[in-house]
Amino acid sequence: MSAAHYAKIWDDYWSDTTDEPGQVFWDSRPEVGVLDDLHRFGAHLDPHLPLVDIGCGHGTQARALAGRFAHVVGVDVSEAGLAIARAGEPRPGLEFARLDLLDAAAAQALHARLGDANLYVRAVLHQLDDAARVAAVAGLAQLLGARGRALVVELSPAAEAYFEYLFAEFAGPPPGLRRVLRHGIQPAALQRGDLTRLFALAGLAPVAQGKGVIHTTLNLPGGQVALVPTDIFVFGRASEG
User: Fold this and answer.
1) Could you tell me if residue 213 is inside a domain?
2) Is residue 134 situated within a structural domain?
3) For the chain, percent of residues with pLDDT exceeding 90
4) Mind listing the pLDDT tens digit for each residue in 81-121?
5) Residue 222: left (phi > 0), alpha (psi -120 to 50), or beta?
6) What whole-number distance in Å separates Cα of residue 160 and Cα of residue 46?
7) Residue 241 is assigned to a structural domain of this protein
8) In this structure, are residues 81 and 57 in contact, taking their beta carbons and an 8 Å threshold?
9) N or C of the chain: less Cβ packing under 10 Å?
């Protein structure tokens, strides 16, 4: 799919989003989202580098990052999502900018402005097709430069079975996820080894890894919060080792 296609479906999604709680399926509170990820893996990121929140959407996680790094840039392909993010509470050192990660020249221009940067990449790659994933990871490598590292949270292979369970519980797509599918966004869990192979193509290798979950806004019939299984990696230049 083209970059223009991804921009359109995400603009459509965010344009259809209001302040009503629970609309955004993956809208974790920062303490069980980015702050928990940083608690576990943040020691692998150089605190002196800026941090770019890739696919920041409406900016929830980027605002939490701004409390941990001096300069944070939330980027997204969707102008509609960025409009929501910019309308939120301002934070020192936080800015939002449009970035088409599939555009190599755009990634190069952002790197030229920021220098080497750390990246937070939460549940972005799984909704891209195979060719777009390769281009996206090349863009991530451009932004990292020589010294940056990428903290990547992605749906694990176990997520596929978990979504089947959710569909069975709700006799179809559950609320929140139904909105995602209606706008043509097609999530697909990456299979074992996909992430490391993708990043290896861009000269990046795992520095650390672990398991986690995405706390969704969906409550199950028994009252529990739906938790989507994830794999978590920190990637850096393969030459580091």
Assistant:
1) yes
2) yes
3) 81
4) 999 999 999 999 999 999 999 999 999 999 999 999 999 99
5) alpha
6) 34
7) no
8) yes
9) C
Q: How far apart are CA 111 and CA 100, in angstroms?
A: 13
> What phi and psi, each to the nearest 5 degrees, are found at residue 24?
-90, 110
Kindly state the tokens that stand for 182. 């209606």
Number of separate domains in the chain: 1
* Domain residue limits at 105: 3-236
Are 207 and 114 in contact, with CB atoms under 8 Å apart?
no
Tokens of 175: 């609320």
Instruction: Please tell me whether residue 212 adopts helix, strand or coil conformation.
Output: strand
Q: For residue 115, what are its two tokens? A: 């220098």
HSE, side-chain direction, 13 A CA sphere, residue 72: 21
C-alpha span between 236 and 241 (Å, rounded): 9
Is position 78 within any domain? yes
DSSP alpha helix (H) spans, 16-157 = 34-41, 60-65, 79-87, 104-114, 130-144
Residue type, position 91, single letter? R
Tokens of 83: 């409009």
Q: pLDDT category, 241, cuts 50, 70, 90?
A: low
Check which CATH number belongs to the domain holding 15 and give it: 3.40.50.150
